[in-house]
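User: quick one, fold this
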Amino acid sequence: MGGQKFQYDESGGTFFYFLLSFLALLLVPGTYYWWPRKVVEDPTKYEKDCHCKGCKKKQNILKSNEPWKGTKQLLTKLVIVLGWLCLALLAYKVSQFDYEYANFDPYEILGVPMGSSMSEIKRAYKTLSLTHHPDKKTGDEKAFMKLNKAYKALTDPESRKNWEKYGNPDGPGAMSFGIALPSWIVEKENSVWVLGLYALVFMVALPTVVGIWWYRSIQYTGDQVLLSTSQMYFYFFHRTPCMPLKRVILILSASLEFEKQYNSEIVERPTDNIEYPQIMKQLSNFGEKNKEKPICYLYALRARVIMFAHLSRIPLPEKTLDKDRMYIIKKCPYLIREMVNVVSTLIMLAYARRVSRLLSIETIENCMKLCPMLVQGMWEYKSPLLQLPHVGEEHLKFFLSKKRPVKTIQQFAQLKHEDRRSILRFLDDDQYEDVMKVVGRMPLIDFSVRCEVIDDEASTVFTAGATVTVSVTMVRKYMQTLFGDETINVKYCDAEADAEPKEGEEEDETKAKEKEAKKEASAAGGDSSGADESDLSDDDADRSDDEDSGDKNVSHLEWKTSLLLIFKSHSTVLIIFYYLSYSFLLQEAMEDDDDWAKFQSNFTRRRDWVLEGKSKLSHTVHCPYFPEEKQEYWWVYISDRKSRTLLTTPVHITGLVDKEEVQLNFTAPRWPGVYIFTVCLRSDSYLGFDQTQEIKLDVKEAPEVPVDHPQWEISGEEEEEAKPEGDASDISEFATDEDIDE
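Assistant:
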């Protein structure tokens, strides 16, 4: 066998393979992700949208924020098209290269079969040479050169023998491996430039890009809030356990996102020293004399002016302060969410005795309350009816009739068409239709709660110190279901919401009504378990006797399944590892097949939730004073109103489209007695849409743990101590002390 040698591409032909592969790797995913797609708009969108003055202004602002959107899309398309053209040219070049440098076959070139005689070969050569000779009109120099080479290979006995034996007229040759890079890269005169380019890319540019990315990433939390801002929140909230709403606004305005030193997007103008004091004169209870740092800093003072003016709906100069308002207000929901996380963390640290002060429930609720205030652009003490289009403070007197005063949007929706039109008689038909569109699409949440103790045989019996699981089910409907009309105008809402329920849905509604009736009956009868036992459906009650025996075995491993939710960023690997490592062990540990089926069902549900991720789309909020499109989000938590404390960390629900269910866990009180806790549902988008529901827990005294349990597992060290020296191998791992003594 011949030797082996490596060589660079002298002609530069095979280098096209590298370019072709590299360009294809960029173009295929790049085209899929970056090709501008035309958004298919709903043809009935214009009829469904509100056309009030605020909504029109907001739409114009959103369009003006992207003036180069069409140009960017056109340039993106041109770049992608040019890339595909280059790919096509490279593919054509490679195909020509393959054709020209294909394996040399003299029989194929002369058009004669293998084993032909010399006369046949000469005859074929003569015929083809007359056709391909360069002196002829139909001549082809390359084809004629190949023809001569093929003729020489077959007329020379040694060349013909080498061809038939080795497939090469020149005999056995060395095996060569080509490197798809041009040879000038390794030439001596170009070495300095090649090394310089290598050093620039891998020693300067790449470390710089990675360093900048790392430096920026470590400055922010998961919600893209500066860590310095979070530290400031921890300091102020720990100092003030019971914080009023006004002070929450002061701390929010001091967020470092509004400081130009930390945020280059902040714009400072020479006219700010004139315009800001003019707006401050129109604000009451502003608190400009506060001397705390950084609340007293100039950037915090300006942000506070913007927030107060936004909440008071004071018009600002469009080219200066109104731009500041749009930037500051759109940042506030993320900052408020971080505030809620900070306060809930401090409360849980206080329970663990890591911090000395326990924050009150009013502090975290004031943070939550501030979010819908900024989204709707109004103070909390204002009427929630001001969230409706075309309705101002001068129109509120029409809602306060002597017969039936209307104070909430829900009360307004329940009126008949004649009564609603009578109240809104100051509006024309188009404006009245805008109001009904907005009201019809507002949320109506069916809020149900069920309590149980999963890791106990009797799931509805609450003992001191037990872990109570509260399942909160939220069904989102449109407010138009409250309309007092006999017929509902379908254009206020989506077709899916207006569709008639199917047979199965009618049965579910019937069961729900029966369930509510049973709940009222149990509450009237004074059941000791209160709303907890009544929340169980008939099917759950029928299955409870069969499943209670296996609940304990399953529940010991529920917390292990919950650990997966913590490592959400590595969910796929962890889920596969968890399932493979535990499925076999758990199947052996569970005595009943129903227990194993129940665990698999629970695991599959949580695995799917982890893999799908947390959705950020729900329903669009009507908020003409908010500078961006806003989605409906909710907070759910459990509190103790008597002690003014928070029992569970608030869960932020961002994907409530039709139905959502969350589980809240807390530890039952240590002392027996009857306790009443409150499950709270708060909106971060609308004022006056919060709901609460009380749960009643009759906490019993915890039973004593039996010393000798027939199925109590003994650890490895205790088992060795318990085994007699003589016949340790004959003793079962489940043996009791009495068995060992015998």
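User: anything notable?
Assistant: The mean pLDDT is 76.
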